[in-house]
Design goal:
Elements (H helix, E strand, L loop, with lengths): L2 E6 L5 H13 L17 E3 H6 L12 E5 L15 E8 L2 H11 L7 H11 L3 H6 L4 H9 L1 H4 L7 E6 H6 L1 H12 L7 H10 L2 H9 L26 H13 L1 H9 L5
Parallel strand pairs: 1-3, 1-4, 2-3, 4-5
């Protein structure tokens, strides 16, 4: 069966999407242990986690294997799966919120928050992610969602883009769309979808994480508040102004922002 990449720029909702899918497949709540979130279900896994365990992705899986990745499509670690890849589920989120979420996830200190946001705007992403092969925010979005670019690496892949904001607004509809696209169920059970949604709310995941004894003390939580459409003035008015200038002056970035409803 084909591989389906569940791709995104870091901190865009990839893990939440996978938890929703795993909960539907199990028809049960997915118990969260922050240090063991790579393989949430045998059909919903994580490329890096598999490799860290010394395992390759199985090409004889009985159904579509959904695999999390932040790497660009042309990354060396994904080339062996060129002919096996049939689908790409891409999760996208407003860059404004991606900045805040990455800042929290990377434990940026209070003194450096503003500099971090400015750097993201100037370089169109987090430099550390670019160095490991995730690209900039616009590069990641374009390489995975533009069929002409994607098919250079995965010639048979179909693409479905899911906005994080839509996942929040109507989680059931978004989950239904993901299940249908991935081919996880020929006859999608709406009651089962609703159970998966109830079992995977962000509030519930945060509550689970608070009770997770495996989480290292002092670490910021993996699951934040999941806010949307935030102003960057929290970093300073000059940061908000710099972002608006980016939208005016960078045609590529602005085009993507407008296409996915993030132009404000």
């Amino acid at each position: 069966m084909p591989i389906a990449w569940v791709a995104s720029y870091p901190k865009s909702g990839n893990t939440w999407a996978r938890i929703l899918l795993a909960s539907y497949l199990r028809d049960d709540e997915v118990r969260i242990r922050v240090n063991e979130m790579g393989i949430l279900d045998e059909a919903v896994t994580d490329l890096v986690d598999m490799f860290q365990q010394g395992r390759l992705l199985p090409l004889d899986h009985p159904r579509t294997l959904a695999v999390k990745t932040h790497f660009l499509p042309g990354a060396e670690v994904q080339r062996r799966y060129r002919s096996a890849t049939g689908k790409v589920l891409y999760i996208i989120r407003n860059p404004r919120d991606v900045i805040y979420s990455n800042e929290r996830f990377l434990h940026v200190g209070e003194k450096h928050r503003t500099a971090f946001a400015r750097h993201f705007i100037e370089h169109r992403g987090v430099d550390a992610w670019r160095r490991v092969g995730f690209g900039t925010w616009p590069q990641n979005v374009l390489e995975w969602t533009s069929p002409q670019r994607l098919h250079r690496h995965f010639p048979d892949a179909d693409v479905c883009v899911i906005r994080y904001e839509d996942m929040k607004h109507d989680t059931a509809a978004s989950l239904h769309k993901m299940i249908d696209f991935l081919g996880f169920d020929n006859h999608i059970d709406p009651d089962r979808v609703q159970r998966a949604v109830r079992n995977s709310t962000l509030d519930r995941l945060r509550e689970q994480e608070r009770g997770d004894r495996s989480r290292r003390p002092g670490r910021n939580p993996f699951f934040g508040q999941g806010l949307s459409g935030q102003s960057l003035s929290g970093y300073g008015e000059d940061v908000e102004e710099a972002y608006l200038r980016l939208l005016r002056e960078d045609e590529e970035f602005a085009g993507l922002a407008e296409r996915y409803g993030y132009a404000q």
